[in-house]
Batch of 4 targets.
Target 1
Amino acid sequence: MPQSRLFIPFVLTISLAYVSPGKAQVPTESTQAGEDSIEAKSDSLLVIINELETRLRELGMQYRARESITGLREAHTEKAYSDKLLLHTGDERISLYDNFRKRYTVPKSGDPLAGSTTARGYQHIPPGQSTATGISRAFNPAMSVNGLFSGGIFNGRRDQPWEVYPECGMEEGLHMQETEIQFSSFVSPFFKADIIASFSADDIMLEEVFITSAALPFGWKARIGKIYAPLGKHNALHLHHFPFIEAPLIHTMLLTEGGLADFGAELSYLFPLPFYLEATGGVFNGDHPFFDTGGGRDIMGLGRMNALWDLSENTTLELGGSFVTGKSGLSDGNESVIGADTTIKWRPLRRALYTQAEWQLEYLKGSQYLKWGPFRGSGEELGGIVTHLRYRFNRTWWVQARYDKTGLPGGEDVSLSRYTAQLAFVPDEFELWRLQYSLTDPDVGEPFGMLTFQINFTIGSHPAHVY
């Protein structure tokens, strides 16, 4: 039995037997009743402790079943599995490399685990030795796959609205919207690497590939590689993490459907303050169509500042501001995008699995001639807002609403309004079913709607998303 299980009853026994120094107490009827009450409470505590231990064992078994644990991981105790659960589900994953080194060491001679066989028939293989396939899997990265299948039908307009207004959503019919593969692992105690690629029916794209520092002092953090620029809240999200099935209108019109992703370096600093305050700066190649001039010096600079406060034990407020600037891909001079965002999240600690809410507002403005769709070349500035409200009313169901508006500033030829409602079924963190209706109302032309659904699933060990 692990020492922690022996320690808890021992402490309870000592604490119940302890009597403060002084005059000896003579047992009376009242003291006897108090002792009986204390003994009953200690029995109840022991029952609760046993139930918790049983539940931890069950969670460990479920985790091993889902992750298809190999013989190497079968060699470790239930406590090791509990630790891995914490590393998998929270920000503690940053110490995964250290835990890996401590746990997966070659058994010493005479170790009862060496060469033994588990109840499932797996053989315990020390790190560095070959498995039945002839290749060691000890240092394989964490891998995950996200699949998105969707379908939709239009009403109102029959002249293929996605060709007239490509920013508004997807085509009719059934589609494989995207399949994303992610690899994540610590290269060393100093760097962690992530590689993310996506596949669609028409394209294969390397979305992100970067290394992140894990050992810089004084609150500094660095990322180098191809990354989604932290421009506002939405741009940093991958498709499977969108709060709605498609991107906001202003993001698609300014930054294209793929968002603003580029090769470069990013440095951020977390200020030592009683609240969360982070500043981020970056330099990128400028290969994105928004800034690409076709030359070799399309350098793009980026900055972001965001702060977060606890309004209460259940509510947080986040404010952010960001900008990106570089040479224009259409005209001379430097072009830029600026943005501001605010997010309020409410999640009661005692009912976090059953109810929570989120409200978000984001504004973007770009100063460049548009390059995409029917609005190509119109206007020197285009701005827009997007706001949404999400509410979880029980453990598996969400209801959501969103409002988009472009042309703030801009002309009526680039002004669109969109109203979106969504019902989402989320049985667990690996599965999501959505039904969504959007009504788009252009200032020029007739309004049209689209009814869409989406199946979103994840297999493998997927890292936690940004808060």
Target 2
Amino acid sequence: MSRAKRPLNRAAVKKADAEFHAKHPELKGKPLSGSDPKQAGLRKEWMALYKKNNGKIEKSNKKPPKPPKGTKTKCPPANGPFATADAAAKAALKKANPKSIKDNLEYSGLIYKKDGKYYYTGPAKGTDQGANPLGDAPAPAGTKVVGDYHTHGDYSTADAKGNAVRTKDPKKDQFNSDNFSGTDKLDNTKQGYPGYLGTPSGTFRKYDPATGKDTVLKSAIPAGV
């Protein structure tokens, strides 16, 4: 499995989109699904165009072990059900955000829909400056991904090598940790579904690429760590 290396190369994204939509004009304005197996070929095609235009690709070395013959593959545990995607996201962030702040690492997962109800996957541990919910916390087969969530760890500065160093002080934060980054929003725009964010202040945010609105989720959970 391969994916575009974060942060995305915006110039490469723009060129890849232009070439892709020139070949598939019917898909213009319709973001590709990150989970629909019917669009796997289209996703691969776009990735090739991104790479061709100097976008960097990284490959995952993780290969899931093959189950013994005669056994059924288990789906990730279901965390839910919830009545709405927002409710599932709040529950996921309530679980992930304290860990994220304590470890100063990003955690992430997906929000998915099954039989009219909503669930979340993860939280899966990422790095001090990134997470990969599609690769590290996939949704069960036969479900529809309707959003993703991630956290931003604690307030930090960057050392000489670019690594995050905890400060615990919002006035000494070089990563704008209480807000979505431009890359975060670009990723959700590309996937075509909302993103949810847990922050070191304890505030939870939602970005909806369909409307371009970046809002605070009600009943956010204080950091408490």
Target 3
Amino acid sequence: MRTVAILGRGESKTDVPHPDLRPGLEYWGIGQAHRDHAFTLDRIYEVHDIDMLPHPNYDAEHWEWMKAQPEGTTAIYMHDHYPVVPCSVRFPVEGAKALCHNIRVGGEPTPTFTSSIDWAFAHAILERVDVIELYGVEMAQMVRDVPGANGSGANMAVGYSTEYVHQRPGAWGWIHHAAAMGIEVRLPADSPLMSKALYGYDSMRGYQMIRVEAVREIQDAIRNYKDEVSGQMRTLSGQYETEKGDDELGRELLHDIERKRRMLIIADGAFNALEHLTGESAIEGIVYRMKIEKRKIEYGNSKNLKMSALNRVLGRLEAYHECQNEAAWQEAHKQFTQEKIGLFIAIGAEQAMDWLIADCDKQQHDYRLHNPVSDFHMEA
């Protein structure tokens, strides 16, 4: 049985098994995936135009790596074989496009390839592999910062890469195409790429919905909450100015001020996550549960990544403190603060999705438009 692992650069890239554990598994990397693994990949799919690759705005380091690979190592599939890239192999584009000959738009055959993933899938189909495993292929990267309010300095990635929005339908299509050809396609258990719901047959939980207006009511509650916490923070700051001569009381006040600041950042995360959700759904006027659940997974993954980053920076802080490297410690401390803010934002975003899911649960078997009735609360 021939099994290939298609390797993207998303979060699940770390789940790919080492060759020592899976002898015979073929590793097909997308673009710069070679950077993420200590072992040599069997293939790289680099389908961008060769004139684009050396440009510094693309990835000059990746281009230099491609040129440096000796012939007979990693096969690099490109538009053609180029002497400057000794390992380059012409991609069988004609055969891949022919797989779409029965798809016609306006009577014309219309091959659909929206990302390098699609080309790799087509190649696997052409080569009649038995199993395709996906690692690092989530297509759910968050982008675009929105400044925090109340002086918290919090920034939240509330948009999602328009590139991935455009590319996802192609990946869905090629996953199903491969499966229809008898190829087993394996994805991680928590992959946001696929939905497990069978429309009309399974529980309709995923199709529960909440009005956008109701989500905005929660945002209004968050605004009121932030105003209340900001007032408490100002009061505590005034008390600290008066009592800071008392070391014990001063420490307690600083601790309370820091806790209020953390609560504000978490609230920013919740507010902006809801803002993104309502922005996406403004035309329809409703938000579906399955979209909320996908966002919860993404924010949860972001939270875990931030926690890991915090632990790494904390280790560096301790090391710099021991060796008395003040400059390096200060720089690491700045990064620690930023990672901590990012963690609180992700906590708030995930918590906001939990509120909406809890409201969906209250619908039971009523799948009509619903206004959430949960009591607003913010966990800090």
Target 4
Amino acid sequence: MSLIIDTYEEAVPASEKQNNGQSSTTTPSRGRPRNDQSHYKEGHSKCHTHHRVIRSKGHSTLPNIVGPFFLRPNDPICRNLYCASMLALLFPWRDLQDIKAGFNSFETSFISFSEAASQADRDMLASAQYYHDRKVAASTHRESDDKAPDMSNSQDRLAADSVYSDSEDDKFQIELTEADLPAYEESQKNHREELHGLMAIAAARTKKIFGSEHCNWTCRTSGVGVAHGVDYIRLQQWQGKMSEDIATLNDDSALALCDAENAGNITTISDEKLESDIGRDYGVK
């Protein structure tokens, strides 16, 4: 595993092939220093064409292991194969005979390796068994669900109801009536937005934008849809009409029609006036 993660294969440059694998560069080069290379053992099929390059420290290369999951260590049928697989994966070796490390069996060699293994190798062994641990836990959970009592029986339901009726949660149960429905609807409102709308209407009435008559505004359509060309034209017309109304209200001739005491004068709204305006029913829903 360390060979695959910490090194990668690279072709030997032509200049090094002419010098029997030695670099022809004698002067130090600019830039980042080259990583160390490790040549294949003499007799390997790539010993003269390729070498292994040791990755820099701190790299984040991860292995991508394809194929079936690793074997279970507690299965006596495949115990010996599991030990040989883990040794081939984590134990450094050149020949297959090196995996046993002088022991008579793969299991004995694996036990000796596990006792002196590094923390990284221990984590790898634990991660290899994660699939089997979760599979056993899921099977146990399904078996416990299958053994749960069937509530379709009337006697089981009555027994369960008697258990829950004796719990302490019964004293917190509240029975709702039709009289509580308005209070519930009121609690679902956003009072901050409602207060903001009432204050905006009160300010508009003070500036003579709205009259004092009762208004009931309702939406002509319900739901949300995609705007089309006609909708954009109506929006532009509405914006133009609003601009004309603003210009008309700001015109001196329009201000002259207002009361003399409020003609073009900006005054502070008193708290009493604001509270009286907000207290009215403006028909906003």
